[in-house]
Write a structure and sequence with these properties.
By secondary structure, this protein is of the alpha/beta class. Helix content is 38%, strand content 16%. It has 22 helices and 19 strands. The strands form four sheets. It has a six-stranded parallel sheet with strand order 3-2-4-5-7-6, with helices on both faces. Strands 15-14-16-17-19-18 form a six-stranded parallel sheet, sandwiched between helices. It has a five-stranded parallel sheet with strand order 10-9-11-12-13, with helices on both faces. The longest helix has 22 residues. The radius of gyration is 26 Å and the shape is globular.
Length: 583
C-alpha cells in the first residue's frame, strides 16, 4: 500500500518512504488466504465495505447476499461440506445480530463457521456514549457460539484468525465469532513485520483416538446383541470417512438407520437400510450404535413409546464430546474420539471371525421394509389432481434417482417431512436441510453455498412458508448465475391454505397466504426462468429442463391446499388449547 498511509499506530513519516507498509485490511485477507480460506459470504456496509472490495481484488471469492442471516446459513453449509470454517462477513450491530442466528444454528448443528463482524470502538462502547451502531457484540455472541474473540491490534490479526480456525474445527465443530473494531482495519505496520505475525494453522482438527478399553467394551456390548441397530447422524457424514463407515455397516451386517442429513452415506436402497422400517427397529432393537448422532428430540431422547420398553436397550455412542454421553439415557459403552478413529478402532477389533446378527432379526427388518415400501409405492403411484405431496415428490424422487450428483436442499413442514421419507439419496452429503433445531429459512443460503462449494446443480424443495424466510436471495442466485432449481410447494399457506378466520371477521386466517401466488414471476423479475407446474408430469418436465440448462429457475408447484397436516409430523410438539371460551 502507499507509503504515506496513516493509521492507529501513528502517522507516516519521511522514513516510511523506504519501507513497505501494510494495514489491518490486508493483514486479515493475508491471514485468511494463508489458511486456504478463500470464499466469503456476507453483506457489505460500514465498516467492512472496503474489506470486501480488497478481498475480491486479492482473488478471494466474495458472495454478497441480501440479508446476513442467509449469508450466515451459506457459510455454515460451506463449513459442513468442506470441513473448513465457512466465513460470514457482516457490518456491526443489526448486521451482526442478523448473522448471529446463523452462527447459533451452526454451533447447534456442529458446522464449522466463523462470523467476522465490524464493530464500534471499545472506548465508546464501554462508556455507552452512543456510537454508530454501538453494541457490545462480543458479550452478546459468547453464549451462542463455541468461542468468541476480539482483535484490537493489527499485529494480533494472525493469532486471532488462527484461534478462530482451530476453535471452529477442532473437537466438536461449531461457530466462532471474531470481533473486528473499525479502527483495526486502518492500523498500519511494516509489511515484513505484518507477514511475520501471520499464523498458518497446523493440524487444526487433530485425531482423537478412543481408549482401547472403551473400544473393547463397545465390542463386547455389540457381540451380545440379538437385535442390533446402527444409527448414522450427520456427524458421520461430516467427517468424510465414507468408505470406513460403509465398511463398518457391511462387515457388521447390522441394519442401519440414517438421520436425514446422513442419507446417502450408504445408498438408501442398500439392503441393510432400515429407513423404511424405522418404527420397528427403534422399538425392538436391543443394542443401538450411535455414530455421529445425538439422542435429542429427533430421536425422542432415546426413550418413550417409540423406543419400546423403558430401560430395555443398551447404547454404544461414538462422539468426540465426552459430555454428550448420558445426556438423556445411560450409555453402556461410551466411545469418545473422532468418528473416523473410532470406526477404524471398531473395525480393527472385529477381526475376521465377526458373526452377523441373527438371521431372524435381519429378516424381520427386511420384510417390514419391503412391506412399507410397497405401501409407499402405491401412494406415489397415484397421480392426483391437484397434486398432493406424494404425487409431487414422486416426480422429484425420479429426478434425484436419475441425477445422484445433484445436491438436495429441503425445508418446510409437510414439504420437509414427506421429502425426507420419499426421496432416496445415493451419495453422501447430498441432502441439506433444517438440521437439529428444525429452523426454517436455511433454504436459499444453503442452495447458494452448495452450488458455490461443489459446482454441482442444486435442487431446492421449499414449502411456500419456508421459502418466504429467504426468498429474496433468488436475486443472489441470478446475480451469480448459479445452477439452482427452486421448487416451491405452493398450497396457499402454512400447513394448509384452507383455514378460515374462526371469528368470522374480515382478516384471513393466520396460516393463510395470498391465494394463487406466482412465486415463479419473482425469479423472472431478476432474469431467471420461472415456470408453473400443476401436474406430476409437468413438474418432472420442468425440473429436468431446469437442471439440464444449469440456469437459475423457480418452479411454482401447485399443491392441494387441503393436503397438509398441522406442523407436519411433529404436531405433538405444538400445544393445543383445550379451553373453550365464548364471547
Amino acid at each position: 500500500m502507499a507509503a504515506n498511509a496513516k493509521g492507529e499506530l501513528g502517522e507516516a513519516t519521511e522514513t516510511d518512504d523506504a519501507r513497505e507498509l501494510t494495514d489491518g485490511f490486508h493483514l486479515l485477507i493475508d491471514a485468511l488466504k494463508l489458511n486456504a480460506l478463500d470464499t466469503i459470504y456476507g453483506v457489505p456496509g460500514i465498516p467492512i465495505t472496503d474489506f470486501g472490495r480488497l478481498a475480491q481484488a486479492s482473488g478471494m471469492r466474495v458472495i454478497s447476499f441480501r440479508h446476513e442471516q442467509n449469508a450466515g446459513n451459506a457459510a455454515a453449509i460451506a463449513g459442513y461440506l468442506t470441513g473448513k470454517p465457512g466465513l460470514c462477513l457482516t457490518v456491526s450491530a443489526p448486521g451482526f445480530l442478523n448473522g448471529l442466528t446463523a452462527l447459533a444454528n451452526a454451533t447447534t448443528n456442529c458446522f464449522p463457521m466463523i462470523l467476522l463482524s465490524g464493530s464500534s470502538e471499545r472506548e465508546i462502547v464501554d462508556l455507552q456514549q452512543g456510537d454508530y451502531e454501538e453494541m457490545d457484540q462480543l458479550a452478546i455472541a459468547k453464549p451462542l457460539c463455541k468461542a468468541a474473540f476480539r482483535v484490537l491490534r493489527a499485529e494480533d490479526i494472525g493469532i486471532g484468525v488462527a484461534r478462530a480456525i482451530r476453535a471452529a474445527v477442532s473437537g466438536r465443530p461449531g461457530g466462532v465469532y471474531l470481533d473486528l473494531p473499525a479502527k483495526l482495519f486502518g492500523q498500519v505496520m511494516e509489511a515484513e513485520a505484518g507477514a511475520a505475525s501471520l499464523v498458518k494453522v497446523i493440524d487444526p482438527a487433530p485425531r482423537q483416538l478412543p481408549a482401547p478399553d472403551a473400544v473393547e467394551r463397545a465390542l463386547e456390548v455389540l457381540r451380545s446383541a440379538e437385535r442390533p441397530l446402527i444409527i448414522l447422524g450427520k456427524g458421520a457424514a461430516y467427517v468424510q470417512a465414507d468408505d470406513r463407515v460403509r465398511e463398518l455397516v457391511e462387515r457388521s451386517g447390522i441394519p442401519y438407520l440414517p438421520m436425514s442429513m446422513a442419507k446417502g452415506l450408504l445408498p438408501d436402497d442398500h439392503p441393510q437400510s432400515a429407513g423404511a422400517a424405522r418404527s420397528l427397529v427403534l422399538k425392538e432393537s436391543d443394542v443401538v450404535v450411535m455414530v455421529g448422532a445425538r439422542l435429542n428430540w429427533l430421536l425422542s431422547h432415546g426413550k418413550g413409546k417409540s423406543w419400546g420398553e423403558s430401560g430395555s436397550k443398551r447404547f454404544i455412542q461414538i462422539d468426540i464430546e465426552p459430555t454428550e454421553m448420558d445426556s438423556n439415557v445411560e450409555i453402556a459403552a461410551p466411545l469418545v474420539g473422532d468418528i473416523a478413529s473410532c470406526v477404524e478402532a471398531l473395525l480393527g477389533g472385529m477381526g475376521e471371525s465377526w458373526s452377523p446378527p441373527p438371521e431372524e432379526w435381519t429378516r424381520r427388518v427386511s420384510e417390514k421394509r419391503e412391506t412399507n415400501l410397497a405401501k409407499m409405492a402405491q401412494r406415489l403411484g397415484a397421480d392426483t389432481s391437484p397434486m398432493d405431496y406424494h404425487s409431487a415428490l414422486a416426480a422429484l424422487r425420479t429426478v434425484v434417482k436419475e441425477r445422484p450428483d445433484i445436491l438436495l436442499v429441503n425445508e418446510g413442514a409437510n414439504t420437509l417431512d414427506f421429502a425426507r421419507s420419499i426421496i432416496d439419496l445415493y451419495k453422501p452429503r447430498k441432502r441439506l436441510d433444517v438440521g437439529t433445531w428444525g429452523v426454517m429459512g436455511i433454504g436459499m443460503g444453503a442452495a447458494v453455498a452448495a452450488a458455490i462449494e461443489t459446482g454441482h446443480p442444486v435442487l431446492a424443495i421449499e414449502g411456500d412458508s419456508a421459502f418466504g424466510f429467504s426468498g429474496m436471495e433468488i436475486e443472489t442466485i441470478c446475480r451469480y448465475d448459479l445452477p439452482v432449481c427452486v421448487v416451491v410447494f405452493n398450497n396457499n399457506g402454512i400447513y394448509r391454505g384452507s383455514e378460515t378466520n374462526p371469528s368470522g371477521g374480515g382478516d384471513v386466517a393466520t396460516t393463510v397466504f395470498v391465494k394463487g401466488s406466482r412465486y415463479d414471476l419473482m425469479m423472472e423479475a431478476f432474469g431467471g426462468r420461472g415456470a408453473q407446474a400443476t401436474s406430476r408430469d409437468e413438474l418432472l418436465e420442468e425440473v429436468n429442463r431446469a437442471l439440464d440448462s444449469g440456469k437459475p429457475t423457480l418452479i411454482n408447484a401447485i399443491i392441494d391446499e387441503n393436503a397438509g397436516t398441522e406442523s407436519g409430523r411433529i404436531g405433538n410438539l405444538n400445544p393445543q388449547s383445550v379451553v373453550s371460551r365464548k364471547s
